[in-house]
Amino acid sequence: MLELIDVQVQYGNIRAIDGISLGVARGELVALIGSNGAGKSTTLKTISGLLRPSAGSIRYEGQEITRAPTDRIVGLGISHCPEGRRIFGRLSVRENLVLGGISRPANEVRQDLDRISSLLPLLGERMTQLGGTLSGGEQQMLAIGRALMSRPRLLLLDEPSLGLAPMMVERVFEVIGDLKRQGLTILLVEQNVHHALDAADRAYVLETGRITLEGAAAILRHDPQVEHSYLGR
Amino acid sequence: MDVYFLQQVVNALSAGSLYALMAVGLALIFGILRLINFAHGDVMMVAAYLAAFSLFAGLPVPAAIVTMIVGTVVVGVLMERIAYRPIRGGPEVAMLLTSFAVGQILQNGTLLLTRLGNQPTQIAFPAPDFLSGVVQIGAVTIPRVNVVSFGSGVVLLVLVMLFLTRTRTGLAMHAAAEDLPAAQLMGIKVNRVVATAFALSAALAAVAGLLYASQAGQINPYLGFTPVLKAFIAAVIGGFGSIPGAVVGAYALGFLEVIPTALSGIADVLPPGSVSPGVHDLLATVFPSGLGSYRDAIVFVFLILMLLFRPNGILGGGAKEDVP
């Protein structure tokens, strides 16, 4: 479904991503793990068109999207739920959700508001509340709900558990599991490697802009390098 | 005396509307791009010239107004496309300097065109009938342009507010102003949102240009300087970048400017015997008849006080400490 071939991204003279190739098949949940600064978020931003790669190619369902603008990428069915949630704090929950569906016709957006509030009941109760007044966990749910409003076929999820209380982390991963069961394809960036490998089918380990390990999540969980570097065993 | 004060109130509301039309345009663009568009006054000047030449050419007033608005919107959108888009996201000082450059180009371009058309630098503005003369409301006599300024200002500001809060494009503008990359991730076409903001801002400046030129009676290529400065002050007083703040700040500025004029020489306006001689002398000392000429100084003192004690403006909340 999604394929990155030898993608490089530069920030000035610094090469943040140094030729990575990865693939995500339809219906798969693929995790991208690695330490801070390894280039995980940069990879997602490059896929969604916020950053332009300096070399390499990105293909989605057979189409070249390497330098496509973000609005076109969203239109093709890729939705990016960014790191730090990036909720519109001065707008209501409903307005945040409507913005998530802004690339779609207004009547579909109304239906989707009901669909999302039944999927994430937490949001249904708080439609008129300002985004900025929600708790961290609620904001994360809103960020996921907002990303779903564009009816994506591929969801890019960046650090959904970052800074959340343990109970909320469980809730977030329950939602991710639900979405996967509903057939959504997900590329997940996550520093909580334990949870990420539990949820994922496959995973890539990213270190200083390169992929150093890849494979089935069940196998990577028992890989000595992963155990040592990321699982603290 | 009641009549006198009523006239001053109408003057304040009229000036406030004019400043608000300009300040909202500044705030719209600053909100999204963090650009203080000092060329905004020159866009307004272009509108005044477009109106003048359309009327000179014999167009009926409605057609002249449409020509003016459409022409000004084209100028505003081109300005964004040519000058601001290439440096979008660049340092704020680069954008600010660019806006001064754009202003110079618009001024000198207009000057060149008036020269080529064998026109003097300063021309009399052919104010249409509905903007000239006076209206009589009871005992109060008010220039008609002031009444129209206030009325059209209020109507347009309400329309802008409805647009920003009730339409999807307005919502997209809010989102872009709050977090541009996040707005992009929603699939919002940022270029289109920015172009719409410039178009809307230019349309408001066009109306302000027509009203301003009708009030002033004469136009020249430099007339945009004072209005953009006033609009900037209004936006700072209200809370820079906030649209409601710009409106509140503009009317506050309108009243602030009128107060020195209204109070100057108040002791002489009071009917004899209505206050004790001591109060009369005090009023005469505190509000001398020449107070009106200190209008701008008083406004700037107020601005300095605002910046010192409430730097985020009337609607911006108190001074915020940066949390590390």
Structure commentary:
The complex is a heterodimer of chains A (233) and B (324). The longest helix of chain A has 16 residues, at 166-181. The model of chain A has no long low-confidence stretch (mean pLDDT 92). In chain A, helix 3 (93-100) packs parallel to helix 6 (136-148). A six-stranded mixed beta sheet of chain A has the order 6-7-8-3-9-10, with helices on both faces. Chain A is built from ten helices and ten strands. Chain A is globular and about 45 Å long. Chain A has helices at 40-47, 70-76, 93-100, 106-119, 121-124, 136-148, 166-181, 193-199, 217-220, 224-229, and strands spanning 2-11, 14-24, 29-33, 55-60, 63-64, 78-81, 154-158, 185-189, 202-207, 210-216. In chain A, a hairpin with a 2-residue loop joins strand 1 (2-11) and strand 2 (14-24). Chain A has one domain (2-229): 3-Layer(aba) Sandwich (Rossmann fold). Chain A has 233 residues and is of the alpha/beta class. Chain B is mainly α and 324 residues long. Chain B has a domain at 2-222. Chain B has helices at residues 2-33, 40-56, 61-84, 92-116, 144-166, 168-178, 180-185, 190-216, 225-238, 243-263, 266-269, 277-286, 295-309, and strands spanning 123-124, 134-137, 140-143, 218-219. A two-stranded antiparallel sheet of chain B has the order 1-4. A two-stranded antiparallel ribbon of chain B has the order 2-3. In chain B, strand 2 and strand 3 form a beta hairpin. The longest helix of chain B is centred in the first third of the chain and has 32 residues, at 2-33. The N and C termini of chain B lie far apart (56 Å). Residues 318-324 of chain B have low confidence and may be disordered. Chain A binds chain B through residues 48-50, 69-71, 74-75, 79-80, 82, 86, 88-91, 95, 98-100, 102-103, 106, 146-147, 150, and chain B through 168, 171-172, 174-175, 178-179, 181-190.
Low-confidence stretches of chain A: none
Largest sheet of chain B: 2 strands, antiparallel
Helix percent band of chain B: over 70%
Tally of DSSP helical segments of chain B: 13
- This entry's quaternary arrangement is heterodimer
* Whole-number mean pLDDT of chain A: 92
Helix content of chain A: 25-40%
Report the end-to-end length of chain B measured between terminal Cα atoms.
56 Å
Helix/strand-derived category of chain B reads mainly alpha
Give the strand content of chain A.
25-35%
Mean pLDDT of chain B: 90
Strand order of the largest sheet of chain A: 6-7-8-3-9-10
* Radius of gyration of chain A (Å): 17 Å
Find the structural class of chain A using helix and strand composition: alpha/beta
SSE order of chain B: HHHHEEEHHHHEHHHHH
CATH architecture of chain A: 3-Layer(aba) Sandwich
If strands are numbered along the chain, what order do they take across the biggest sheet of chain B?
1-4
Low-confidence stretches of chain B: 318-324
**Number of domains as seen in the coordinates of chain A:** 1
SS element count, helices of chain A: 10
